[in-house]
Design a protein that fits this description.
The structure is a single chain. It is built from 13 helices and no strands. It is mostly helical and 310 residues long. The chain folds into two domains: 116 residues, no CATH class; 142 residues, Four Helix Bundle (Hemerythrin (Met), subunit A) (Up-down Bundle), CATH 1.20.120. The radius of gyration is 30 Å and the shape is flat. 25% of the residues are buried. About 14% of the residues have low confidence.
Amino acid sequence: MDCKPVYLGKRVNGDADSSVRGPQRFAMVLLTVIGIVVIVWLPVGTQASDVVESVWSQAYTHIEQKFDVALEAYRQGKQEKAVDWVMKAQFNDYKNTLLETAVRRYISQAKDYENNAAFTHLVGMLQEKKPIDDVKERMALLLQSLASDLPGLPLVEGAISKRAMAKLAKKSLSEKDWAQVVSQLCAQVEASIHSYGKGNVENATAQLQDAYFDSFEASGMAAKVGQQDAALRERIEGCFSKLVEQMQGGASVAALRNLLSEMRTALDNAVAMLGQKRYFTLTTFFYVIPVLVVLLAFVWMLRRRKPLKV
């Protein structure tokens, strides 16, 4: 019996080849579609639960800022003012923003009770004149607890309309005149320094707080700057803190105006940065490349496909 050699992997005829290549092509198309869906959907799906609504982010920032002011007042021996700032943080920023309602509704009533108890405990520590380091540590624990509540926390009815935070809507931010915001902000700081020069320190610091919360934050500028340049945002916020500290420390009006000039320079840099349109970011690059690779592989596979023999 004659034995003819069989060459493994060699094409025998067109029909056999098409019967093999057909299922392979179908499998490749199926895997390509699955790959594209996974690449596009997975980053969104895995990060959805980490999104923090802007209204909650603003409420948290306000609480943090008020705690800083309270600590500074406590450090200077102004116990009643420190207590007042902590209570403002609890009632104005935790309760009135409806953050409390969201925590109670979507996390648990026990967690809301824990948060309120922590505020009350802080007030008690201040009234009992506990060491400032202990107070600072307790504030940090409360802020950490609040921060853990925010990712994925849904909005509740009326939360956005409660404060000027509604101005943070994305459509509005894209058309915001940041130069006008800075002009208004600097005018408020200038008015604060003017009040200070007349000897009204308490009114001056209150005006500074209004300038920060109502103009820098409520306009959305703080969030936008922080997204693109966190160091620049810290620099601007540092100017606010220094202004408050120097006013409470009895600094000269000239020193305050120097700080305002430094703040204006930082704000002008922020305006220039926000005016630049960024159509492509590094994060977008890392998301787009895998999609392009899969699509190119798919196109290459289609180009290699040969017509079936009849």
